[in-house]
Amino acid sequence: MGKKKKKQVSLRLNLVFFTVFVLFSMLILRLGIVQIVYGEDYKREIERTEDITVNSPVPRGKMYDRNMTTIVDNSASNAITYTKSQGTGTAEMIEVAEKLAALIHKDVKDVRERDKKDYWLFRNPELAEEKITEEEWDLFYEEELDNTDIYNLQLERITEKELNELTDKDMEIIAIFREFSGGYALTPQIVKKNVTAAEYAAVSENLEQLPGVDTTTDWDREYPLEPTLATVLGGITDSNEGLPRERLEYYLSRDYSRNDRVGKSYLEHQYEDVLHGQKAKVKNITDKAGNVLDTEIITEGERGKDLVLSIDMDLQIAVEKIIEEELSKAKQQPRTRLLDRAFVVLMDPFTGEVLTMAGKQIVKDEETGANTMRDFALGNITTSYTVGSAVKGATVLTGLNTGAISPGTTFHDTPIVIKGTKPKSSWRAGLGTLDYKNALKVSSNVFMYRTAINVGGGVYQYNQPLSISPKAFDTFRNSFAQYGLGVRTGIDLPNEMAGFKGIDRGPGLLLDFAIGQYDTYTTMQLAQYVSTIANGGNRIKPQIVREIREPVMNNEEIGPVLKTFEPVVLNKIDAEPSWISGVQEGFRRVMQVSGGTAYGSFGSAKYKPAGKTGTAQAFYDGPERSKFKEAPPVMNLSLVGYAPYNNPEVAMAVMVPWAYEGNSGHSANSAIGRRVLDTYFELKEKRLEKQTDKEDESTEEEASDE
Q1: What superfamily does domain 314-688 belong to in CATH?
Q2: Exposed, middle or buried, 641 (CB in 10 Å: 0-12/13-18/19+)?
Q3: CB count, 10 Å around CB of 563?
Q4: What is the pLDDT of residue 46?
């Protein structure tokens, strides 16, 4: 019985062993199949360790004027790119560069001497080794010199003769290699723009022999109306510049690539987030060596959104022409050697929309030596000057608000004489006894002097010392700031300046301040100031971008509105409505009543303008300043205005710095101002007539259909 039981156990145990043997044999067989048959496939799969997403740039958004005239566009062109893999070495890039150089012509103007030396060393390794002495090699083996030291010695010892042996084709290879090596891994780098049709076809046919090279469509900014507004529109970096170093981290954190083109100045920079668009995203699947195994398009991308500016380009171009003509005419007058610029801003006084921002500067052409006009629209916000009597409206309202004068206050216009100083008088004698409205009309300096003395708590006595509170400067500046004078206007452009404030606080200088001959202001500040008076007391933020619109696939169409910029009231001035009305009346008399300082220029205007002229004694501080031992005294001319006086629709500021030397000269400020306002209303009338004609034609067509 016991033996039978033993046999059964042995049989079962053998069966278990056999089963285990079979299972192990099957496992070993399976492992063998995996290792031998599918090993390479699984190895490649295992080595696919990275999914790297790369952003491809798209065209930027366009810019239009308020009438949908294209100001900034994109022009497409054929291009060749190179995308470097993470493991790509110098030898491979040079090999591809040689093949590509046989298919295209590459400009070599950017090739540096160092580029040529690097290439020579790569091509001549034996000769490069001979340039190191035995003693230097010994130091290298003893680790007293490293690879960098040896390489630098080799670079230094390449002769001019050896470099001159490089052929034209070598130079093209170097130029192409320079573009290859300047890119970032897995990021397309532009190798050549504006590729010819023949080059494009040749490269496209040989892409299999050119790893990393591709043909594509590139874009550049196009300015159909250049140079109009060139300085305000700004510029973008090119693919070689890439991201600005000072803002590198900012852009990288926002998913930009290092060689992306971005706005680097003014509107292009200010609205970069809007204009740059939604970039195409491509996922590169790479192995551990960085070689691209596959690519997958994640999103197609979308070009940037479009900007609609408040600028009226028809008006802008016409105003620029007026400035050029009047500047040229003024330059023919005597004592105008330092005159080289003029500015005009036109603004809607109720919305702050900038209709025109024009500036011109006379510069000498370096090649011909002849004077030429260049765009300097930016000078309206980046340069400031003493503006003279144009600010007297703010002086009067400061006096009324502080109680220094009342609406019924009058002063007799006789020279102010402070002991130990020269008499301070108006621009001409015999202006009589004046209230503030007529003081504005005839531009009485004396009225403003007496107002300033009262603001400062001083008591004026002929030929006696004058004592005023130093705080009077703060009182005036705080008041002027309510109108936009001496502070940034808030316009949607970067680098706006606030102007310069005088440092000394003497009583005589306070009097100068009151007539606009101490602190400096920009033309845009003058436009905001006169708009504040024109609209009844609201300081409106100037706005140069009116709308943001969605891009559309059809470039001939305008996309739907994404955002509209509404008027922004920065502050309401601290003044009674009757006081503002009184200043408006004074401004009306300046231009429409005989005896007003601008009546000769504007008295015949049918659009009923109001405004204030300005002439300021100043010292030249322009580009020719270094030629003089002392700054020459000059006259700055200004003009502010709006029209119609009883229902303002346009506000204007004109600035002509360093107009002439001496006490008298031309009046380019008034000449420019009159022609500019004439042009505005003429253009308006023409458009109304055109609209009426269209409506009549439409009505006739409907009638005929019936």
Answers
A1: DD-peptidase/beta-lactamase superfamily (3.40.710.10)
A2: buried
A3: 13
A4: 47
| Residue 328 reports pLDDT greater than 70 | yes
* Identical fold, 46-80+215-307 and 89-184: no
For residues 65-77, give the mean pLDDT.
93
CA distances from 690 to 21, 357, 457, 684, 693 (A): 100, 26, 59, 10, 5
Tell me the one-letter amino acid at 332: Q
Q: 396, 404 in Cβ contact below 8 A? A: no
Choose the CATH number for 89-184 among 2.60.120.10, 1.20.1290.10, 3.40.50.1820, 1.10.10.1230.
1.10.10.1230
Residue pair 284/83 in contact (Cβ under 8 Å)? The answer is no
Nearest one of 665, 676, 605 to 639, comparing CA atoms: 676
pLDDT score of 290: 47
Phi first, then psi, for residue 77 (nearest 5°) are -155, 155
Q: Where are the domains of the chain?
A: 46-80+215-307, 89-184, 314-688
**Beta bridge partners of residue 640, listed in sequence order:** 612, 653
Comparing 699 with 74, which gets the higher pLDDT? 74
Q: What count of Cα atoms within 13 Å lies in the side-chain half-sphere of residue 346?
A: 28
pLDDT score for 86: 73
Enter the pTM of the model: 0.83
Residues 643, 610: contact at Cβ < 8 Å?
yes
**Distance between CA atoms of 255 and 258, rounded to whole angstroms?**
10
Q: Which residues pair with 521 in a beta bridge?
A: 385
Q: What is the pLDDT of residues 480-508, one digit of tens each?
A: 999 999 999 999 999 999 999 999 888 99
Q: What is the DSSP string of 492-522?
A: SSSS-----------HHHHHHHHTT-SS-B-
- Is CATH 3.90.1310.10 what the domain over 46-80+215-307 is classified as, yes or no? yes
Q: Residue range 435-458: average pLDDT? A: 97
Amino acid code (one letter) for 345? V
Bridge partners of 52, per DSSP, are 284
Query: pLDDT grade, residue 425 (50/70/90)?
Result: very high
Active site residue ranges? 389
| Whether residue 52 has pLDDT greater than 50 | no
> 632 φ, ψ to 5°?
-65, 140
Check pLDDT > 80 for residue 300: no
Lookup: tokens for 15: 């069966």
The per-residue pLDDT for 223 is 93
Integer-rounded Cα Rg, in Å, for the chain is: 38
Quick: pLDDT tens for 564-582.
Answer: 999 999 999 999 999 999 9
Can you tell me whether residue 469 is helix, strand or coil?
coil
CA atoms within 13 A on the CB side of 270: 16
**Residue pair 688/681 in contact by the 8 Å Cβ criterion:** no
pLDDT, tens digit (0-9, with 9 covering 90-100), for 371-391? 899 999 999 999 999 999 999
DSSP letters spanning 354-388:
EEEEEEEEEEE-TTT--EEEEE-TTHHHH--B--G
**Coil, helix or strand for 96?**
helix
Q: What is the DSSP string of 410-463?
A: -EE---B-BTTS--B--SSS---EE-HHHHHHHT-HHHHHHHHHHHTT----TT
Helix, strand, coil percentages for the chain (3-state, nearest 5) = 40, 20, 40
The pLDDT tens digits for 339-359 are 999 999 999 999 999 999 999
Alpha carbon distance 263, 255 (integer Å): 16
| pLDDT tens digits for range 584-600 | 999 999 999 999 999 99
